[in-house]
Every structure is written in C-alpha cells, then in structure tokens.
Amino acid sequence: MGLDGPVDLCDACGPLSTTKNGNRNKNTTRRKESTMSRKIHIFDTTLRDGEQVPGAKLNRRQKLEIAEQLARLGVDVIEAGFPCSSPEDLKAVQTVAEQVKGPVIAGLARAVQQDIDIAWEAVKKAERPRIHVFLGSSDIHLQKKLRRDRESALQQAVEAVKYAKKYCEDVEYSTEDASRSDFEYLCRVIEACIRAGATVINVPDTVGYALPEQYGELIRNLREKVPALDKVILSVHCHNDLGLAVANSLAAVRNGAEQVECTINGVGERAGNASLEEIVMAIRTRESFFDAHTTINTREIYRTSRMVSRLMNIPVQPNKAIVGSNAFAHSSGIHQDGILKDRSTYEIIRPEDVGIKAHSLVLTARSGRAALRHRLKELGYELTDEQFQRVHKRFLNVADRKKEISSQDLATIVEIELTKVPETYTFDSLQIMSGNTMQPLASVTLIKDGEKITDAATGNGPVNAVFNCIERIVGQTGKLRDYDLKAVTMGKDALGEAMVRVEIGGSIYSGIGTSPDVIEASARAYVNAFNRFFANGNA
Ligand SMILES: CC(=O)SCCNC(=O)CCNC(=O)[C@H](O)C(C)(C)COP(=O)(O)OP(=O)(O)OC[C@H]1O[C@@H](n2cnc3c(N)ncnc32)[C@H](O)[C@@H]1OP(=O)(O)O
Ligand SMILES: CC(C)C(=O)C(=O)O
Ligand SMILES: [Mg+2]
Fold first, then answer.
1. 66 neighbors 311 (Cβ within 8 angstroms)
2. Oligomeric state and partners (predicted)?
3. Which pTM does this prediction carry?
4. Helices 301-312 and 60-73, interaxial angle, to 10°?
C-alpha cells in the first residue's frame, strides 16, 4: 500500500486520496452502483479465539456481558465459543445465542459430526445462527497433525459442510493454515466447500506467517482463480506472531476480503489476533483509500476494550493504538502547542469517536509554555507575564525531578511562587535522636517575634517526630496530605527540597523548604505551610 495522493487525515477532517480498489466481488459492484463503499463485516472472536489466551477464561455470565456489549458495538458476527470443548462452554454459547439479539451468533466445530451436532445445539436458538467448521489445509497440518492425505481431507471438509448445512443455512468454512497451504489445493478445497453449501469462506493466517503484500496477493489470486467466491462472503483471520495481524487483514480488505475476523484488544492464541479497534479505525480513518466501511458504532470501542480487559484480567499496554492510555495523550511541548492551535496537527482520530472523553495534555519536563499556560488557565489561574515566568521556571525545576506534573503539583508550585508568606514562625534549629531500637525523638527550635521557642516530641519516624514537635510549638495540628522530597543538586552534598501539602483547619496549605539535610528541608517546608495558614488570617 502506498499513498498516491495528499496525505489523508480522516474523512471527518479533510479530503482523502482516492485509489482504485480492484475488487470485482458482487458487493463491490452493487455498492459502487449505488455509489457506496463496500461493507466489511466484522466477525468478533474475542469469546472464542480471544478466550484461548492462558488465564483469560470467561464464565457464562462474563461471556454474556461481553456479548451484549459486542452487540452494542455493532459487530456483525459474534463467535461465542467452541461448544464441544466443555459442557460449560456449550451452555455459555447457548446463553449468548438465546439472549443476544442483532449479530449472527457462531459456534466453532472441527470437521467432525459430533462437534457439529454440539455446535448446532449451542447456536440453534439464535436469531441468526452460524456453524463455523474448520480443517487444516496446509501439508504441515495434514501430514503432521491430522495425519491424512489431501484428498481425504478435502472429502472430510465437504462432508462436514454438508452435514452442518443440514442444520443451518449459514455455514462458514475455514481452511486452517491457509497461508502456508498449496495454492492449487486451497482453491480446490474452497470450490468444493462452496459447492457443498458454505456461505462464508475464511482464509486464515493461522500462525501469523504471512506478510501484507503476500497475503493481499493471496486473497486477490483466490478471487481470480475461484469465481465461486463471488457467491459467498470471503473472510480473513490473522494472527499476530510477527506483529502483522492488522496489516495483513487490511491488505486483505484492500484485495477483496469482505469479512475480517478479529478480537477486542487483539487478544488471542499466542501473540493474539488482529485487533478489532485498529482494523475498524483504520478503515474508518482511511475510508476512501479502502473504498470500504464497517457499521461498527465506534463510540462503544473504548468501553468494550475496558470491559474485555477487566473480565479477562489482561491489561492493555499504554501505547496500544486506539485504546491504550497514551493513545490520545500528548506530552511534548511542540505537539501540545500544535494540538492547542488545531487538533488536526497531531490527531488523526478524535478521541470522542472511540468513546474517550477527550485527549489529555500531560505536563512533563518536555512540555512547553503553551501547555503550561493552558493547564493553568484550566485550573483558574490568571497570571501576569512575570508571575508566569516564575511559575514556568519552578515547573521545569520540579518536572526534571518528576515523571509527570499533576494539577495538584501545579497548584503547589503556583502557591509557593506567588504567595509571599510573612514568617510568623522562623525555623531555627533541630536535633534528632533516632535508631532502630528506639522511638525517634526530635527537639525543634522556632523563632516567633524574636523569641526562641523550643519543644520536643516523639514520632514513628524522625520526620514525623519533627512535624509533631512543630505542631506543639505552633499550637495547631495538621494532616500531611502530600510529601515530596527530592535532591535539587547532584553529589553527596546535594541540596534536598521538600514540598508538603498539609490540611490545617479544613483547608490545604502548601509548603516548601530546602537544605542539604533532608530532615531540615522537611521541617522548613512544614513551618512554611503553617506560616501560610497563619497568613490566611488564622491566629
Ligand atoms: C486454530 C484454532 O484456533 S483451532 C481451535 C483451537 N481451540 C481449541 O482447541 C480449544 C478447544 N479444544 C478442546 O476443548 C479440545 O481440544 C477438543 C474437545 C476440541 C478435542 O479434545 P480431544 O478429543 O481430547 O483431542 P485433543 O485436543 O487431544 O486433539 C485434537 C484432535 O482433534 C483433531 N483435529 C484437530 N483439528 C481438527 C479439525 N479441524 N477437524 C477434525 N479433527 C481435528 C486432531 O487431529 C486430534 O485428533 P487425534 O486425537 O485423533 O490425533
Ligand atoms: C479456527 C480458525 C479460524 C482459527 O482460529 C485459525 O485458523 O487461527
Ligand atoms: Mg485463530
């Protein structure tokens, strides 16, 4: 695939390059006549192939919950399980078939009568049931796993399709390991299964071996060599062993595939299946390139992803496309500036289109003034230029020491920089007695109105003992809400900076203190917070 026009943004954002699709299937023709793009059927196999992930097993109730959400998402087919695999899976698929309305409900079966009987038992009450039969077609699978020759396997496939057809009008046949199969033999199997009544032919890249150009070519060649494919739906099913499941699926769509089998979050056997959200959003974002569309309600994508992650107990990696926590997070200054000027500069998908409320601008040491100014405004701060410069300087200083600056951090920075606090109490000195066999004891001296006041207190640690002591001297208790201690310079004699947020009298006060001694820095920060409290009119 390559761009043959201006770089696409998305249909919602601007014009797209128009390219020749090259399809000659019946749907393409029909849709083109009515000037509509081809519909790509989304076959979700989260509950079957996705559930083959170790540890991801779902019970009946969980399968139903996900299936109902998949129906809201608008998938065309839900493969609800492999009913012959266990009595519980049979019941789970039955429950989904009986209760979930809208999508076709499919059950998987090996090319053997017993599996097909059970699959039918599972899906027969669905509004639109489908039996999905599969059998290996590569010599590797035939010789090493099934231990039979091509001809008898072909016969078995045909008999299985005919047998399934007795029960169900809609029968999908999968040529397992198609991408490693002999092409002529693959064509013969497909032709024979269509003749036997298959309504959908699936051409899986079972072991994720294919490369996009090659897989696209396979689909194109199949369409050319097997005209009967025009009478059925041609489907693809890609695995991610080389990280190419989505790329291969899209190459197939480009070359005439009409159904894509995929899973939420890309979960599935080994490295997983093609990810539904990536395929759907790629087709949507580059619709005219593919000359195709899906009927997925994309605003349900994020919710579905969260649900599957939660119920399967498989976290989504932060940089996962579309649904990862960083998919719409901008953290570098140049990008943030661009986004604030016009989101199309760095956003090809609107987060709300996949059900995420908004993009996020994460403040880090790589952020610039534009993002900082924006966040300060969001937090309600209106600063003069001079104040902003001071806040920016301290922001960079803190950001260099922290991975991310939260709104709370920023509030502390602003408070510390902008509020001049009269020193009701001035820190003078402290002494600590501490060790692993005694309760820490601190003695602190503060100065008030020129007079030294000394007191002592214990605590569950030296810093806590110092804080308790300060509270005794100022005659006021506080609750430490946030405590951040960092070295501001390098080396053994590094200067430590303590930042605290203390709840005093129902309000939060920030304090900052520096010293080469971290306990002294903490004491200075605590006194600083109390001075803000007193400066606020509290006696
Ligand atoms: C590519 C895929 O994802 S395929 C789906 C993979 N998913 C699963 O396997 C999960 C569900 N599977 C199961 O619960 C079990 O494996 C069952 C119930 C299907 C079969 O269990 P068992 O009867 O104990 O067989 P077992 O799993 O040990 O071996 C599989 C057998 O099926 C045969 N087989 C494999 N695929 C097929 C097929 N498509 N059609 C017919 N037979 C097949 C194998 O050759 C093997 O037969 P053999 O025992 O005569 O050598
Ligand atoms: C059962 C088939 C479709 C499969 O999961 C595969 O080939 O990967
Ligand atoms: Mg698979």
1. yes
2. Homodimer.
3. 0.82
4. 170
What distance in angstroms lies between residue 46's CA and the mean position of ligand 1's atoms?
19
Beta-strand ranges (E) seen in 13-143 are 38-39, 41-44, 77-81, 104-110, 129-136
CA of 182 to the centre of ligand 1 (A): 22
Mean pLDDT on 188-193: 98
228 C-alpha to ligand 2 centroid (Å) = 22
Cα three-residue angle 112-128-79, rounded to 5 degrees: 55
| 117 and 261 inside one domain | yes
Instruction: Give domain status of residue 400, yes or no.
Output: yes
Ligand 1 pocket test target in 52, 145, 146 with most atoms within 8 Å of CB: 146
Check which CATH number belongs to the domain holding 217 and give it. Answer: 3.20.20.70
Residues 108 and 94: their CA atoms lie apart, in Å, by: 13
d(CA 528, CA 290): 63
Claim to verify: residue 99 and residue 210 sit in the same structural domain: yes
- Count structural domains, the chain: 3
The answer to whether 346 and 339 are in contact (CB under 8 A) is yes
Q: Residue 52 CA: which ligand is closest?
A: 1
For 314, list phi and psi in degrees, rounded to 5. -120, 110
List pLDDT tens digits, range 19-72: 333 333 333 333 343 458 999 999 999 999 999 999 899 999 999 999 999 999
For ion ligand 3, residues whose CB falls within 5 Å? 49
Structure token pair of residue 155: 């016969």
* Secondary element (H or E) of residue 434: strand 426-435
Atom 5 of ligand 2, residue of closest alpha carbon: 49
Which neighbouring-strand residues pair with 136? 176
Q: Whose CA is nearest to atom 8 of ligand 2?
A: 206
Instruction: Please give the pLDDT value at position 492.
Output: 63
Q: Is 255 annotated as a binding residue?
A: no
- Tell me, yes or no, whether 74 and 179 share the same domain: yes
Sequence-distant (≥ 6) Cβ neighbours of residue 284 within 8 angstroms: 10, 11, 293, 294, 296, 298, 353
- The residue-averaged pLDDT of 95-123 equals 98
